[in-house]
Design goal:
Largest sheet: 7 strands, mixed
CATH topology of the largest domain: Aspartate Aminotransferase, domain 2
Strand order of the largest sheet: 2-8-7-6-5-3-4
Oligomer: single chain
Helix content: 25-40%
CATH class of the largest domain: Alpha Beta
Number of domains: 2
Strand content: 5-15%
Shape: globular
Order of helices and strands: EHHEHEHEHEHEEEHHEEHEHHEH
Number of strands: 12
Radius of gyration: 21 Å
Distance between the termini: 31 Å
Length: about 375
């Protein structure tokens, strides 16, 4: 089986796995314990915090470890709302945000907050003019993901951060698809908070982190929590954090090499779809606003779920969108944000590359999709 679903999750890096086992067996103490064994674990934890903060270009005192991106998004939003820059009850979010953000804002809507959801333009980007006109005197929070997990478009977070600063609005950004994929050092300090996850960068599942600007005096969402300065309860998973740190060091050390590789693979894949190009619609932006490793597309007349199953039968693992949403029998959020009809949304599929992806496999996948489409058309005629 050839794997083309790296945007959903990645395999654990062997070196990260070795570190996990070593830390779990040799630095097993609770990092909050006062004895020397706990102190060793605490020292390692703080080294990891400092290294990850350096990789992101932020102050280590604002970095808190979580169980992953979903929890991180929720806790970051709650932290910002506990310390707004002004009074108000209006929140702006992207229509294409991850399901964890939608879950958080839906809960807030029930609690009395006014929610505005912004669509994407034809290039998969937030329209900045529409964002500005959506802001009211009551707007206290904007939450917009950095890179969309389903089509890979990169939002102009620096410009959005300027808008938020001018209007005294907190900005949270989901960095789950960007941290370790592109250099975030220039924009990470500009946002109020961001989240990232270990298993998207060849680290373990069940671990991630949130950065909240240390100048923000947030209140804990869970009362009585002592770990991570009260940001979340539960014994800190130091082995997973150490493994995630190693994975982050490795992946951020080869950002340009990965970009060049994935750009080449993307072009090769698109070339193989030439025989059916009239039926294929790829949702993307220009090179400067597009993560090359994620391709979101639809093939006219063929449901994405059927295409996914046919690819699976032929030995290729692709997806129909975010894994956190599959099973809910609802279209990928990005298809709604792009204004696709129900039938068009059902045609959506996602292909994503990773470290083990090679040119031969990409070409074989493209050729297989072409053959599936041709066979489907022939069967339809009969």
């Amino acid at each position: 089986m050839k794997y083309f679903d790296f945007a959903a999750t990645t395999p654990l890096d062997p070196e990260a796995a070795e570190v996990y086992v070593k830390v779990a067996t040799e630095y097993f103490g609770n990092s909050s314990s006062l004895h020397d064994i706990g102190g060793q674990s605490a020292a390692l934890l703080e080294n990891c915090r400092e290294e990850l903060a350096n990789l992101a270009g932020v102050n280590k005192y604002g970095l808190f470890f979580t169980s992953g991106g979903s929890e991180g998004n929720f806790l970051a939003i709650e932290a910002l709302l506990s310390a707004p820059q002004k009074k108000g009850n209006h929140i702006i979010a992207g229509m294409a945000e991850h399901s964890s953000v939608h879950g958080a804002v839906n809960r807030l809507k029930e609690a009395g907050y006014d929610i505005t959801l912004l669509p994407l333009d034809s290039n998969g980007l937030i329209n900045l003019e529409q964002l500005v006109t959506s802001i009211t005197a009551e707007t206290i929070l904007i939450t917009l993901q950095h890179i969309n997990s389903e089509i890979g478009t990169i939002q102009p977070i620096a410009e959005i951060a300027k808008i938020c600063k001018a209007n005294r609005i907190h900005l949270h950004s989901d960095f789950v698809q960007s941290f370790g994929k592109i250099d975030v050092k220039s924009i990470a300090p500009l946002v109020s908070s961001f989240s990232f996850s270990g298993h998207k960068i060849y680290g373990p599942k069940g671990v991630g982190a949130v950065y909240v600007n240390p100048r923000i005096k947030w209140e804990p969402f869970f009362p009585g929590s002592s770990h991570e300065k009260g940001f979340r309860p539960g014994t800190v998973n130091v082995p997973a954090i150490a493994a995630m740190t190693v994975a982050a060091q490795k992946i951020t050390g080869n950002l340009q090499g990965d970009h060049n590789k994935y750009r080449s693979l993307r072009n090769a894949f698109m070339d193989t779809l030439g025989p059916i190009k009239e039926q294929v619609k790829i949702y993307q932006s220009d090179d400067g606003s597009q993560l090359a490793s994620i391709i979101g597309l639809r093939i006219s007349g063929i449901e994405g779920q059927w295409m996914m199953l046919e690819c699976n039968r032929l030995g290729f693992a692709i997806s129909t969108g975010s894994a956190c949403q599959i099973g809910m029998q609802s279209p990928a959020k990005v298809t709604q944000a792009l204004g696709l009809s129900t039938s068009e949304a059902k045609e959506f599929i996602r292909i994503s590359f990773g470290h083990s992806t090679c040119l031969e496999d990409v070409v074989r996948l493209g050729e297989s999709i072409v053959q599936i489409v041709k066979s489907f058309k022939a069967a339809s005629v009969i």
